[in-house]
Amino acid sequence: MQVFHMDHHNSLVKLQAFLDGSGKKRKYDDGAQSESSQATSNLGDQPTKRPPGVKAAKGASGKRSIADHQAVAQFQTMCSIKEKDLAVKEKDLVVKERVSKMFLLDSLISKKDSLSEAEEALKQKLLTEMLSN
């Protein structure tokens, strides 16, 4: 039974080393963690031990916040550019609509034949609209 336990333990250690990517075996004393894995955290002047299974925070967290601020600034810049682009597109749409109405009014005015009732009403509506703007 002890041989099975040792083989099982060795297999788990090899599997763990493979999954970690280190390729090195970890040495355990009946499941106890080594001194290097029991790192201390320095909060103030008193170093404290972390509970088992809790990893230390990485020191690059300050750099990450700078990158986050830059990403937020870039996103805000893109949003403001998009808003300006949308405003320009809306103005273009209004101008295109006005040009379309002017073209329609021009074709109604230059028509040689008499206008139908609907065409006359549209002509009057477009004239009123163009003169009021």
The whole-number mean of residue pLDDT values reads 76
- Order of strands side by side in the largest beta sheet? 1-2
Series of H and E elements? HEEHH
Number of strands: 2
Structural class: mainly alpha
Helical segment tally?
3
Region (Disordered): 24-65
Biased composition (Polar residues): 33-45
Protein name: No apical meristem-associated C-terminal domain-containing protein
Write up this protein.
- 63% of the residues lie in helices and 6% in strands.
- Helix 2 packs across helix 3.
- The protein starts with a helix and ends with a helix.
- The chain is rod-shaped and about 105 Å long.
- The chain has 133 residues and is mostly helical.
- It comes from Brassica carinata.
- This is No apical meristem-associated C-terminal domain-containing protein.
List the helices and strands and how they pair.
Blueprint: H1 2-20, E1 40-43, E2 46-49, H2 61-109, H3 117-132
Antiparallel strand pairs: 1-2
Features:
133 residues, mainly alpha, two-stranded antiparallel sheet, rod-shaped, No apical meristem-associated C-terminal domain-containing protein
In short:
With about 130 residues, the protein is mostly helical. Helix content is about 65%, strand content about 5%.
